Fold this protein.
Amino acid sequence: MEKEASNQTVRILQGNEAIVEAAIAAGCRFFAGYPITPASEVAESMAQRLPQENGVFLQMEDEIASICAAIAASFGGAKACTASSGPGISLKQEGVGYAVTVEAPLVIINVMRGGPSTGMPTAAGQQDILQAKYGSHGDYEIIALMPSSCQEAFDLTYKAFALAEQYRVPVYVLSDEIVGHTREKVRIPDGLEPVERKEPARENFAPYKAQENGLLDGMPAFNRGYNLLIDGQLHDQQGNRAAHLPEVCADLVERLCKKITNHAEQLVDLETCFLDDAQIVVVSFGSPSRPSLRAVKDAREKGVKAGYVKIRTIWPFPEKQIAELAGRAGTIIVPELNIGRMVNVVKRVVAGQAEVVSMPKLGGLLHTPGEILAEIERRA
């Protein structure tokens, strides 16, 4: 550990460790999980760090119990999270839908690996990005952030807790084996304050009465004077089951979706370079972003007008920004560690305004800068 500047501390951390330190800095004091590669270090570090912060670590009997315990802890007044990788995230999906319905602020760490089934436990993948959005049943929306470095693992995990509190929704941090097991400098601002949890007023309190913007006014907790009824079935503003009331159910589902989609512009988080005159743009997210940036810089040195976009908030997808990009650039290249999933979202958004080129990669290996540069040069 060292002081690099008067207002920050620099530590050498593994990506999984950076996630833990960010969660604790955000005020997380409860973690429930079950060991799974390549996310195990998250649980191991939480087991060490949370008792030092008067927090609670629970190794549960399985992944379903883990997410349910985290939801319960959230309503018990704690900021909570859970972590896993692909097979465990699949098991958590019913809990994700429950958290959406009861509007529990919750952070879910997915250190992605190759799949399907038990797949490639020690190799990276980005095969869960659609699962994060569509994995549970029914209509709902979530938020998902994707770090490409240990620094972003810290920054985006902290941000995930802030967004979970603001929108009262599960927020994914979609890391992967490469980010999780990389070890590099992480700059931690000194005096970083925990994320605020606002408690709603108790007078005329209704658990699910939304404000005009569709969001709930703070997060109540049991044993603090609120009349709470928490039920996973669709409900009215008091929390009473309403499956026999079509209009009430329809209004609730619509609000659960629109509280995210109506704020999509506020949730956009992009990093861009060289877009002013770019004719070919590499759109990336997560680990492939680092070789993508190197390839774009190398292309620029060769006189190719290449540009770079890194998407840090993958859900909701930055549709407007990518559509505007397509209106300027002739070609968009999408490298991803799967068979080609997000490229189809890009194609839908682009709607034929630009050529969209898929660069899938399977087998657990990351694209090299040379591979991406070669694709840029082929399209130049």
Notes: The mean pLDDT is 96. The CA atoms of residues 304 and 380 lie 7 Å apart. The two ends are 45 Å apart (CA to CA). The first helix runs from residue 15 to 26.
